[in-house]
Amino acid sequence: MKNAVMYGAGNIGRGFIGQLFSLSGYEVTFIDINEAVIDKLQSDRSYPLYITRGEEYEKTEVKNVTGLLGKDPEVVGDMIAKADVMATAVGVNVLPYIAKPIACGVKRRFENGNKTPLNIIICENKLGADSYLRELVSQNLNDEEKEYFNEYFGLVEASIGRMVPATPDEIRQENMLAVCVEEYCQLPVDKAAFKGEIPEIVNLMPFEPFEFFIQRKLFMHNMSHALTAYLGALNGCEYIWQAALDPSIKLLAFQALIESSQALSKEHGVDISELIEHSEDLLYRFENKLLGDTSLRVGRDTIRKLSKHDRLVGAHNLCKKQGIKPVYICLGIAAALLFCPADDAASVEVSNSAKAVGVAETLKKYSELEDAESIALIEKLYDMLSQKAEMKDIITFLEIEKRK
């Protein structure tokens, strides 16, 4: 049996990529620093996966798995040296910490004269994650090792569309490894980044050029998810499904998706009907009650989510580039500036800034956004939302703005 290394045993690792590796016939080794999770993986060698179907779960078992504690880079390197395929799902902020262990794996394979390519599927929510990780790993290699690394290691960006929320307490109490996921299970990846043959993995979708899928995930899925969360929070919706079922929020999210769809269609030459169909599917998936995702979780950390290249401002900028007026996306930006949960320091900082120095200065600082037309619109929408304007009035206002 071939070996797959899954760096990260969290929700995406267990709830998505690990499952696909297992279904594809690999022995899957999860690497993580959570000792309890690793011990349980080693003892059980399987874990339950709960797939939401309507308002019921379908339970399945992910088999042929084990765990490896990731605290010793040399031990991790030995495991990577034996791998046939690998993936990361650790979070962007953790990538610098796994670069050295990966480099140890590169060194082992180099020392062993192993010229079989190893492809690492990077499941991180960051534009340019492949080049970022390659640079981090290369810092731990000498010149010969770097040459080997660049020739035989494929760093393959992936677009993670499957939603994997927190597992309900009653399910987690039965088994700490249990994960709940939505039915959607496709994994688009950068076809051009593979070294050697593309591994046979269930639901893998190699695509070239891949920038389209990266932007589609960020500027459609992530953008509309965030907009739904921010408007939902302002309207007292605890859960995303509640916000997604609100007719006004659903309309506004769909209109924002249309703006992104138009921009992506022009940018990449993709049929607009395909993107509209994807928009409708996203909004339908957001209505899934069993995902249990909250507005607070989806909206948190607005410093990151309002940054220049991220979901809202990045989508805005692409629209502007393609000559599309992003008035509904601007509503999402305005709503984000009002998002202020007490336990979310980043969002409190942004919200306080908007109150203290104004919308324009706050967007200049956190988003590098200085487009006068958009800022004026966001300021107006911010005032309307602050004053708790009726959604019908906001919709009417935006319809007029769109046609100016």
Short description:
The protein is of the alpha/beta class and 404 residues long.
Give an account of the 3D structure.
- This protein is α/β, with parallel strands linked by helices and 404 residues long.
- It is 55% helix and 14% strand.
- The protein has helices at 11-23, 35-44, 73-81, 95-111, 129-138, 143-152, 169-174, 211-234, 240-245, 247-268, 272-286, 295-299, 302-305, 311-321, 327-337, 345-357, 359-367, 372-386, 391-402, and strands at residues 3-7, 27-32, 46-53, 56-63, 65-69, 85-88, 118-122, 153-157, 179-181, 187-190, 204-207.
- The strands form 3 sheets. A 6-stranded parallel sheet has the order 5-2-1-6-7-8, sandwiched between helices. A 3-stranded mixed sheet has the order 4-3-9.
- A hairpin with a 2-residue loop joins β3 and β4.
- α10 crosses α14 (311-321).
- It starts with a strand and ends with a helix.
Distance between the termini: 62 Å
Largest sheet: 6 strands, parallel
Based on CA atoms alone, the radius of gyration comes out at 22 Å
What order do the SSEs take from the amino end to the carboxyl end, as H and E?
Answer: EHEHEEEHEHEHHEHEEEHHHHHHHHHHHH
**Arithmetic mean of pLDDT:** 96
Low-confidence stretches: none
Q: How does the overall form come out from the CA principal axes? A: globular
Q: How many strand units?
A: 11
Helix content: 40-55%
Order of strands across the main sheet: 5-2-1-6-7-8
Number of helices: 19
